[in-house]
# Entry
Amino acid sequence: MTWLTWRQHRAEALAAGLFVAALGAILLTLGLPMHSSYHDGIAVCFNGAFIDPAMCSTNMARFQQDFGYTTAVLTMLNVVPFAIGAFLGAPLLARELETGTWQLAWTQAVPRMRWLAVKLTALATLTVALTAAAAALTTWYRQPLDVLNSRFAPAGFDVEGLAPPAYALFAFALATAAGTLMRRSLPALAAALAAFVVVRVTVETALRPRFQPPVTLTRNRFEVTNDWVLDSGFADPNGHHLSRAEFEAVSDAADAANTNLTTYLHDHGVQGWISYQPAERFWAFQRIEAGIFLALAAILLAMVVWRVKRRAL
Amino acid sequence: MSTEHALRTQGLSKLYRRTWALRDCTLALPTRRVVALVGPNGAGKTTLLRLIVGLIAPTDGTVQVFGQSPTTNTPQALSRIGFLAQDHPIYPRFTVADLLHFGRSCNLRFDQDLAERRLSHLDIPLHRKAGTLSGGQRAQVALALALAKRPDLLILDEPLSSLDPVARREFLQTLMVAVADDGITVLLSSHIVTELERVCDHLVVLNHGRVTLSGDIDMLLATHRLLVGPRATANLDHTPSVIEATHADRHTTLLVRDEGAPAAPGWQPHPVSLEDLVLAYLRRPDHRITAPARDVSEAPR
# Structure
């Protein structure tokens, strides 16, 4: 079985391996100058030693200018978990059903449950290993950016840590299940992509901000750099959050009184408020996000096993 | 008793969504026979064969191959069955040598020498990709793979339907040599009777998901005959021994199953060909097929 699994999937395995290797080479090539630029000019601004604010802001501006493209690079890395997982998962059963070879494979002396167990284990392990390597490289690449920006940004949270391997395993399970139902690799891949995007976007926009209750602060001045700000606005002295219309009214009143808006707000006890997820929740959120996708993957794989077990093919 | 039969099914049924692909199929196939499973397209042949090799599970009833249920899917049960599915599926990107490696690594016993001998005899190079072989060669490779398992029961689903006449002949030749050498039981399906007549000694007719006839071919031909006589006017549909009545202008031809009893006066007995016999059973309307057909292979000789 080991030989068969390798012989049948070596082309995809090698392609996925090369893909991750190329990705690693690109990240190293782009990352090394960024890391050295950060260490030479910016790191000192954060280690609490003597700080020359002018030098820091100049260096940071130059850094942002030189490496401003990184967000685009990191956003592109979003396709990696799906590419690897679905690429390995879609043909697992679909190709056998497409070419009729399931009848050949399951009439040798290897019981089909063992056949399925070996294949699922081998390819799922490869999926997780490759995406974990890609995520580890991305996490290294992002180190300077994690200090400067919030790690919760989509270009951070979605491509580093535990989330990418969990996304990949979900994509693998989704493509395998779609292949089992649709019996063809390419339509299965397309259906898996659509479902993957829907689930990822839903979790990211509807669930992730609520993984833990956000912290709300009402103050005159905030210093948040790496926290994930969900919402912000103004609040009256009673703590009531002003709607846009209410704030317009306050702003009009300031104009009518011919007063500077900031002074007006200060005089009338109107303060700013923000609702945010603190930066130190990053790993807790990563664990929750990974947990959701691993659970979804487990459900899908259980469905595949169940269908093969009761021969409902 | 069960070990004397290569295959026994009891009330075997398979329901796909709302249609019965196989209905109440009771069969007992003796060992060391070459059995033809004949029926029109959609009769349930593939369903029956897949049930026998355990690829699908029955909705109802049981199936036993050498006393073991293939549904359990144990390595031991799988080892005794060789299966060649319709269109001879093999991995197209594997070389022939890869396919032999596959057989070796996925079976408890696998006679690599035998397979290599057969393939070299047929001039099929081991380094060729399976996808580049001709249809006949692919069928031969798939057959060599199935035979190298040294199965006790070999199941072939429409093995000849996609082959040209030359490839058909070669395929059957290989098969017959293997049967002679190894003494295996073979069950092969087809919708054409004539091409199986030379190689098969047992017949199962399947129609509309039911077994309508089953028995050794010699016995079936001995117990059926055509009676030609004056045009009959009576409705013979309910006479149990009359399988089919064909009326011409002045004559009536009856296909009867009468164990060779003396014909009524005025009726001329004639032997029936296997093809006509099968066609008559296939033409029988659905409502006349009520009880599972008697298995005449167990009748005294």
User: Anything to note?
Assistant: Residues 137 and 284 of chain B are 38 Å apart (CA to CA). The longest helix of chain B spans residues 165-182.
